[in-house]
UniProtKB/TrEMBL annotation:
Species of the source: Spermophilus dauricus
Subcellular location: Secreted, Extracellular space, Extracellular matrix
The family this protein is said to belong to: Belongs to the SPARC family.
InterPro entries per the UniProt record, alphabetical: EF-hand-dom_pair, EF_Hand_1_Ca_BS, EF_hand_dom, Fol_N, Follistatin/Osteonectin_EGF, Kazal_dom, Kazal_dom_sf, Osteonectin_CS
Name this polypeptide is given: SPARC-like 1
Amino acid sequence: LHMHDPCMNFQCKRGHICKADQQGKPHCVCQDPVTCPPAKPLDQACGTDNQTYASSCHLFATKCRLEGTKKGHQLQLDYFGACKSIPTCTDFEVAQFPLRMRDWLKNILMQLYEPNPKHAGYLNEKQRSKVKKIYLDEKRLLAGDHPIELLLRDFKKNYHMYVYPVHWQFNELDQHPTDRVLTHSELAPLRASLVPMEHCITRFFEECDPNKDKHITLKEWGHCFGIKEEDIDENLLF
């Protein structure tokens, strides 16, 4: 008979692995960075300590070993890729950021809606019916590198097309746990993938949390993207 593996369905957070103690009880211990999968140059990750790690696995394993220290508490994944100089985001740039971000979210949904075996089943039926209305609208601004003036004009003219994409992204991020509030760790995957291209995203997320309680509610998120109060609706999170 095969011995039952106590770690089989035991979850540990990133940077930790499961080990069975002498009584056979599972518990989490820090992962040794040398046990991380072999990393390719594209796997590099930049930490908030401005150090480049071979991969996010190496970063979180290092963070685990520093647990209980100030350095360990502060170390987070900043963005994917080697550390580089990220320019400061100006007031003018952060004001423009929601325009590009809203358009980007709408275009992602259009891609997920189009027939593609890679994206098959990504959207559920309720989501597909919402996206279909936008997709079939003849006034829809097609994807492209549009000037800010055009994005602003389109938002005013076709505002209704942007309401659902903003709710959809909130719902996608609100996963651990699903509690209608976004935390730093829930925002991290989106932020980490966008920082090298969109240097204003960190400041944008900070400004989405005006009361600085480290939680972004659906209402705060909607306001950040210019969605009117009466259009921010929990029933759109499905």
